[in-house]
Amino acid sequence: MERFGYYPGCCLKTTAREYEDSLLEVCAALDLELVELDDWNCCAPVPFYDGNGTLAAGLAARNLVLAGRAGRDLVVPCPGCYRRLRDTALDLEQKEVLRGEVERLLGSAPEAPVAVRSAVEVLWRAGAGRITLLVRRPLTGLRVACYPGCRLSRPARIAAFPGGRHAAALEELAAATGAEPVRWSGAAECCGAALGSTRPELVRGLVDRLLTAAQRAGAEVLVTACPVCHANLEWRRGRAWRSALPVLYFTELLGLALGLDRAPHWLRAHLVDARPLLRRLGA
User: Fold this and answer.
1) Contacts of 151 (CB under 8 A, 6+ apart)
2) Host domain of residue 182
């Protein structure tokens, strides 16, 4: 069994529990063990970083120090947390002044570079072909719009990882279930991110545009890897979309195809019910 450090972040312990549950069970089915960092802290998201870059880097770096002591690559499923931790890891390698400031703040810095990996990358590396062999309930006929969102689509040092890119990897994983990823115009567009709390009317327009693009491409469900995208796509949609186009985490899609027992439980957490569609497909 391959072991990784695991940084869940705040969302996966609160509003996105079904993402964490499905991730851990899918990883176990693929002989991947995620060992949660002991005493991890918030990654210091963008608003915090804009207020005090050094302190924000120190908060992110503290998690990297914990991962470095464990001596494992660090899996970060939330794209916002992933971007903050990976940016910080790269900056600590490349910027001596920042590294010195972080060392003064924390009393230490990561002793060796820490490889920060997204959940999409780790499961993709586990092998889409391997996943296909383990599928018990193929999702044949299900047309999905894969939505990596902004934080896994850009900038280049985040969108790409050695040997692949997040957008393509997400589509390969979806295809491994037997589903058919559609080509659509909204894959790299923004859902509005944290503006869902402060400018909900603006986000509603962005979300409805995404849902319209997915529907026009023939999609029956959206698949994402981001808790913020998932929340906006479910919570901030206009009235006309209230019961159309369910949104699933990609790990839930994998769990359904693998026939994991708790998969129906995860789906009950969503505002837009995907179960009628999946029952029609025999899944």
Assistant:
1) 79, 80, 82, 83, 158, 226
2) 127-280
Residues 141 and 230 both lie in one domain? yes
* Number of domains within the chain: 2
Tokens read off for 185: 């115009």
Prediction pTM value: 0.95
Question: Taking 90 as the threshold, does the pLDDT of residue 46 lie above it?
Answer: no
Residue 180, classed as helix, strand or coil, is strand
Is 168 found in the same domain as 76? no
The last residue of one of the domains, among 118, 145, 165, is: 118
pLDDT in tens, 11-38: 999 999 999 999 999 999 999 999 999 9
Shared-domain flag, residues 64 and 162 = no
For residue range 162-183, list pLDDT tens digits in order. Answer: 899 999 999 999 999 999 999 9
Residue type, 40: W
- Give one DSSP letter per residue of 101-160, joined into a string: HHHHHHS---SS---EEEHHHHHHHH-HHHHHHH-SS--TT-EEEEE--GGGTSSHHHHE
CB 75 within 8 A of CB 34: yes
Residue 30 DSSP one-character state? T
CATH of the domain at 49: 1.20.1050.140
